[in-house]
Fold this protein.
Amino acid sequence: MTTAEGSAAAAAEAGVPPEEDYVVREIDVYMTNKLSNLLCMLQYPTRPAWRPLDTSLLNEVRLKPNLQKLEVEYAIKPGPTLNEEGELQVNKFTMTSSSVPCLTNYAVGILRENKGWPSAEQQNDQLHLTPLHTILQMRPSLAYLDEADTARRKEMKEQDATEEGAEVEMHDEQPQALQVTFKKKETQKALQARKQSAAYLMKLEEEESWVKLKLFDNTAPENMAVFDKLVCTNDAAIRWNVSRRQYLDVLAPLPPLDDYLKKQRETLAKQMLSKDELSRLPPGPQVLAILKTGGVVHFSKVRALATNAKTDTLVLKLLQDCAVLIRGCWIVKRCG
C-alpha cells in the first residue's frame, strides 16, 4: 500500500471525506542552543558515501578553534597501491578543512516518537532542533609535497656551498646612515583589505597553536552525554510575533517582482517560434504553439496562423482540446 492509499484509508476510517485535507501527524518542535556554537557539519567532497575513511587508521585529530581549521591524520596501510621504493616515502595522509559559507539555515534534528512513552508525559512526537552555523569541507592535504620540495632545495643549496668552498668574508664595521621612515595611519578600508589578504591569514594560522582532540565511539559515555544536550528540556512555548503570512514568506520567500517578470519574459522568448518554424509544425502542435506564444488569442488570429489546419472545424476541435474559451478569446489550459 502506498502512502497516499494509506492516508486515504485512514481518512475513510475516521469518517473524513478523501477529497478534504486532514492532519496526518502532529510533531512538537523544540529548539535548543546548548551546542549551537560547538557543532559543525563535515563534508567530504572527494569521498563517496560507499567509500568512507577507516577510523581504525586514525592517528590524530587537531583543531585551531579561532580559525575553525580542522585536520585529521590517518595512517596508510601497506598494500599493493603503496610504492615502498619511491623517492618520496609517505606513510600517512592528512585531511584538512576549508570553511564553507552557509547558504541557508541548517540544524541537527532528533526525532523522538511517542512509542513507549506514557501518554501523560508525551502526547505528540517531538522534534528537537539545534541550529548549525559552521560547515567544513575536508580534502586531502598536499603540504607534504611542499615540505619535500623545501628539504630538497635546502639540500641542494648546502651541496653547492660545499662544492664552491664558500668563504665568509669579514668586514670591518663601518658607520652606516640610519634611515627613518614614517608610516601614515591606516584607513579602515585598507585595514579590512589587509586582514583579508592571504599573507595576513597565513600569519594568523601560523600563530595559533593546534589543540589535539580525542575521537569517541558512538557508544562511549562521553558521546552519549553530548547527545543528551541536543534534547531540549525546557517546555516553555516560543513567543510568536509574526503573522502566518510573514512566516510563509520566511519559509518560501517570493522572488522580487522585477526578477519574476524578467524570468517570465525569458521563458516566453524561448517558447516563441519564427513563422518558418511555425509553418513546419503539424496542426495540433501548431495551434498549441500559437496559444502559448500569444497567451489570449481570438479565433480569427489562430485561424490565420494555423496554416496546416485546412478547415475551421479542425481548428475549433484542436482549440477545444488544449484551450478554454473566455469572452470570445482562447486561452491555453495545458502545456503538454
Q: What stands out?
A: Residues 41 and 135 are 5 Å apart (CA to CA). The two ends are 30 Å apart (CA to CA). The mean pLDDT is 76.
